[in-house]
Amino acid sequence: MIGQAVDRVDGPLKATGRATYAYEHWEAGQPLYGFIVGATIGKGRITRIDTEDAQGAPGVQLVMTYLNAPAQGPRDESIPFEYWRAQPVLTGPDVHFYGEPVALVVAETFEQARDAADLVEVEYRAGRGRFDFGEFEDDTYIPKTVNAGLPTDTAVGDFDAGFAGAEVKVDEQYTTPYEFSLPIEPNASMVAPRGEDLVVYVSCQITDAARDSVASTLMMDPERVHIVTPFVGGGFGSKLGIHSETILAALAARTLGRPVKLTLTRQQVFQLVGMRPTSNQRVRLGAGRDGQLAAIAHDVTMHTNPDVEYAEQTAATVRSLYAAPHRLTSHRLTALDLPRGTDVRAPGEAPGMLSVESAMDELADALGMDPVELRIRNEPTVDPERNVPYSDRHLVECLREGARRFGWENRPATPASVREGRWLIGYGMSAAIRGHFQGPTTVRVRLEPDGTAVIQTDMTDIGTGTYTILTQVGAEGLGLPLERVRIDLGRSDHPSSWGSGGSWGATNSSTAVHRACAALRTKLLEAACGDTRSPLHGQDPADAVFSDGNVAIGGASEALREIVARHHPDGVEAEGKTRFMGDDPNYSDYSINTYGAHFAEVGVDADTAEIRLRRMLSVFSVGRVFNPKTARSQLIGGMIWGVGAALEEEAVVDPRSGAFVNRDFAGYLVPVHGDIPADIDAVVLEGYDDKANDLGAKGLGEVGICGSGAAVANAVFNATGVRVRDFPITIEKLLPGLPAMV
């Protein structure tokens, strides 16, 4: 079953509205509703807060501020990953960023809570905040490490000498804006007291992190916190950790002894969830006339929050991508009084490749060389910084196959040379790379007496198809039809995992299922082959074939349910595990990545500078694919997001208050159906990476966005001859440089 394009097993539930999301659970009975009151300054201190009118409003049960909020545990910096730490709120009068919660109103209905929230009176003494990245960009510091524990800076060879001696140079700066994950389902939770325990229905990506974070914040035993998250309406990094709505709902539920439901409004998501940091990236490339890179450097400055540091690994992108003897990468942080940075789909690679792959296109133009050929000429034989072999690298194949399928030979050799009516036509391409990660995950597989299998783990399905691929892996592992495999996800009472994120979820959980099934097969075979009552008695277990609910050895066979009923009348189970990548020698001995190549064609209106994507094709190498249908969906989704990063997405900060001005979908633009043509496709090469895991598969949820925006940006340059290095590329930036048309 692995590798089959199976329809989503949870599709009927979602299509009929029976898939239950965090805000839709009713098991605990009628809940109360909360609404957050946010600060209206970006930096300062509360001098007065009056809740009397709000407390007297119809239906109001509680108004919580820092004056009456329960004590909470501190954020423990010794815990290595932010998402497992305490997330205290309403802990004092100081305001750290615009929109920070200053009060919570809980009432019988949502409308009552929302209306009463307007009655909370807050007075502030505003301080001078640091809100403008450009103003404070030179005031930087060096973080100890960057995201994922990667080194802050790297150096190989002598970059200065190598760059100085290069015949052709590119030295440019590229800027990327604040960007948000913004899944369709806003961050939401409902918390229900159950004796001394709390049941937390929450939209999250890592169940284990949510449990530990809630427990440490409320200073509870983690065993008394029960996370329930069977369906998640998208995450893209924004739900890797929990946020203020969950903690506030938990505090209120414990205070009132009743279930409390709380969701963020779309506007509040912009202020309370975190975002991809804005960045200024300097990329330097030095090459010979033959296109061979001699020196490559990527230096990044980005925003961080002064209280919760986040350093996106933006410059790490180039470390494994191209060969060059002289190399330099660095990360620097500028502390601003804005919400903290956080993981947004393909953290590091998405903004990093937007810049690096634009710079490679600039180098190709300076050399007068085909951009595909330039990349092939700089293909490394080993990881150029770690000096270890690649586990399975097929970037060149992606480049060549993509060029063939796209018709790259028709690319205009001279920018701004092809016109169809009022449209200037251009082609662009880019490469893609993303590291493959592994985290500790445990899965329990149980075979019931009736021969059906139940697979349990706290792993989450954030809309990516986890229910489906685990069904396929389990069905293959036990030789069962799909309909006899049931997946039970998203509960902290199940074996723990690293959840969904970082493109590790599918491979971690599937590998653990694969191993659990192997252990379960061993138990069944030992029982049957050693039992004189079984047709398999005395047979060699090594020759066993599991298929259609039976196990056969030679000419003998027996139904699994018969073996289970005879030896395990209450059912039999086994567990499978994966470990942290730092404990797996393959991850130190090899450079394990996924790869791709993007190709795009755009049209640019010669009069208005309107940009239209006409078609897009990407080719990927991601090892073995569990399900081509769900894989293609993920890859195309990433490609489309890259289009948005290149052309549309940009959050704008009011430099007076630190508020995001365009904090809704009317002002923060993302690609919609009218922006994306039907002619968009993702092709996956056959593959199997035996160094990645037992199944030869690698994560693909994020490689689709890596570099895809640069392909669009490079196509815009090819169409117009205008290079925009301040993303997104908007009409205002492009129009002044358009060539005059007769």
Automatic annotation (TrEMBL):
Span of domain Aldehyde oxidase/xanthine dehydrogenase a/b hammerhead: 16-128
InterPro entries per the UniProt record, alphabetical: Ald_Oxase/Xan_DH_a/b, Ald_Oxase/Xan_DH_a/b_sf, Ald_Oxase/xanthine_DH-like, AldOxase/xan_DH_MoCoBD1, AldOxase/xan_DH_MoCoBD2, AldOxase/xan_DH_Mopterin-bd_sf
Gene3D superfamilies in alphabetical order: Aldehyde oxidase/xanthine dehydrogenase, a/b hammerhead (3.90.1170.50), Aldehyde oxidase/xanthine dehydrogenase, molybdopterin binding domain (3.30.365.10)
SMART domains, per database record: Ald_Xan_dh_C
Name under which the protein is recorded: Xanthine dehydrogenase family protein molybdopterin-binding subunit
